[in-house]
Amino acid sequence: MIEKTFEDDVYQNAKSWPFEEARKLLKRESIKKKGYALFETGYGPSGLPHIGTFGEVARTTFVRHAFECLTGMKTKLFAFSDDRDGLRKVPDNIPNKELVEKYLEFPLTSVVDPFGCHGSFGEHNNNKLMEFLDSFKFDYEFQSSTDWYKSGRFNEILLRVLQNHEEILSIMLASLREERAATYSPFLPISPKTGKVLQVNVEEYRVNDGTIVFRDEDGTLTELPVTDGNCKLQWKVDWAARWTAFDVDYEMSGKDLIDSVKLSSKICRVLGGNPPVGFNYELFLDGEGKKISKSKGNGLSIDEWLLYAPQESLSNFMFASPKSAKKLYFDVIPRQIDDYITHLENFEKQSPSKRVDNPVWHIHAGNPPRSETKISYSLLLNLVSACNTDDKSTLWGFIRKYIKDATPKNRPFLDRLVGHAINYYRDFVKPTKNYSVPNEMERKALTDLKESLKNLQSLPNTATAEEVQGIVFEVGKRYEFENLRSWFMCLYKNLLGQNEGPRMGSFIVLYGIENTIGLIDDSLNRS
């Protein structure tokens, strides 16, 4: 049983989407019979794992934890890899493509590993998936399609598909184009001669013998058992068979699979199963607004996100608005980190009923850490930009003046952020820096700001970020800028060489008044 940390009614009244999803499972009789709820996520290892794959596991885990809190019941999560599928094309983002080209149409666990470190391409990608899920400490059970087929554990459901092949065909054929329907079969035989997964017409279904008859690649009429890994199911039928064999209670999928879910649900019922509760999330888009593809590798990779941001920020990205299409590219990273920091700061001030709807409650399975930083990632980026350094100790010199007694040891999350900010600045900010030359009005305003900061510097007490921000506002109001945004744009372009920037009051206090005056002098001397 799950130990509950809040009163039951707090969970019952929670409004965040994972709780809404979890409530859909409360009436499933299959859960009561098993004594646990089974969640499943699918992975197609035809390409390297990407963040979309992680997103499905993370979101499913949010729902899983919410269900545990609502009911106190046990749960399981199967991370299922369809590694028995045939390789349709060579991915763009792998080495040694010429080696892999020889294995088109072979099961992924029979394709040579182009990376040279595992027994097959499928095994390599499965291990990459598990390494990543383990790094996030997900609680899951990895399941391999190849293992289930070849071990015989799918035999019973395969024979059931054979027995009901006519009804399954009637469901599927109505959804297919005429040319595809002419050769469609629920079964994909694996050639005993070549080892390829064959898309061929099945000439005879021998239900009593548990076999199918088809013509192999050389035209030979061949009879093959549907069991023990000799055949693979077409994927929509495979999905339904898996739901039935495992008795899956919950599985989410992308919006592009809505029609597939409907077909697989019908087939699941034909096989005597009860389709799982579902949830359709929107797809991720790359920097150009195109759908992310594993084979193209056109989105952010797992390693790339973690180079520029902490793991928690990626979970925050997955939690927010799962039914809205979102751009998944480098420029979303700073906002996601700062949103996570804000949620963490808010959590400590919230009531229990508000906390369970806070993203960090779900990200950390009900036990988020204490907030340890008052510095946003955006502010850190601008500090790195102003210092133009990759030396963490230099940056910590400024941070210690801003947060008394702060050290990398007692602020480990902040220390990680500093490292990420250095990487992000190096790769995305520094190459685009372009300092402006101030015009006459801007020179007057910058000179005014410089003198105002000098006056502030002479006062005995250290000014707060709010006080400095007020001074910056007042200086901007004294000049004929179109609006205050134009004034701040002037500061960003002239002092930082960027079109966007931080809250100036916080930045000046963090960077130091004297150092900021130095930036102003550099700008005034620029020609």
Folded structure, characterized:
The chain has 25 helices and 12 strands. The longest helix is centred in the N-terminal third of the chain and has 21 residues. It has 2 domains: 277 residues, Rossmann fold, CATH 3.40.50; 94 residues, Arc Repressor Mutant, subunit A (Orthogonal Bundle), CATH 1.10.10.350. It has 527 residues and is mainly α. Helix 11 crosses helix 12 and helix 18 packs across helix 24. The strands form 5 sheets. Strands 1-2-3 form a 3-stranded parallel sheet. Strands 5-6-7 form a 3-stranded antiparallel sheet, with no helix packed on it.
User: What is the fourth-level CATH superfamily of the largest domain?
Assistant: HUPs
Briefly note the CATH topology name of the largest domain. Rossmann fold
Radius of gyration: 29 Å
How many discrete domains?
2
- What is the percent of helical residues? 40-55%
CA-based shape: elongated
Oligomer: single chain
Query: DSSP strand (E) fraction?
Result: 5-15%
Which regions are unreliable across 5 or more consecutive residues at pLDDT < 50? 1-6
- Please, what is the average pLDDT? 92
Q: Distance between the terminal alpha carbons, to the nearest Å?
A: 70 Å
CATH class of the largest domain: Alpha Beta
Question: What structural category do the secondary elements indicate?
Answer: mainly alpha
Give the number of DSSP strands: 12
Strand numbers in spatial order across the main sheet: 1-2-3
Let me know the largest β-sheet: 3 strands, parallel
Number of helices: 25
Write the CATH architecture name of the largest domain: 3-Layer(aba) Sandwich
